[in-house]
Amino acid sequence: MVADCRAAGPIETKQRKYRSVLIGHGWCDEVHRLAEASLYLVDHGYGHEALILLRTMFETTISLHWLSQKGDAGALGVFAEGSRLMASLEVV
Question: In terms of Cα–Cα distance, which of 38, 35, 14, 31 is closest to 67?
């Protein structure tokens, strides 16, 4: 699973609405990196410590599934939420 992600190379899309593809590619890469890190921890006797990474991996997978269902509208929602969070962090 981890090797296939690295072998995939750059993404290409022929869709006009490509925002969700770009976000999804990043989230998919995150899931694969978390899986790789979790396997490393488990192999070195840190199975308990790997659990938080596994939880994050599953949550990201669920978000990725949601994004695939919503498409471009979901991507715009992700951008809006990011903007809202950044605005709340601005210091006056």
Answer: 31
Predicted structure pTM score: 0.74
Q: Which residues of the chain have pLDDT under 70?
A: 1-17, 91-92
DSSP calls for 25-91: HHHHHHHHHHHHHHHHHHHTT-HHHHHHHHHHHHHHHHHHHHHHHHTHHHHHHHHHHHHHHHHHH--
| 32, 38, 40, 43: CA torsion to nearest 10 | -140
* Cα gap 70→26, rounded to integer Å: 16
What is the amino acid identity at position 22?
A: L
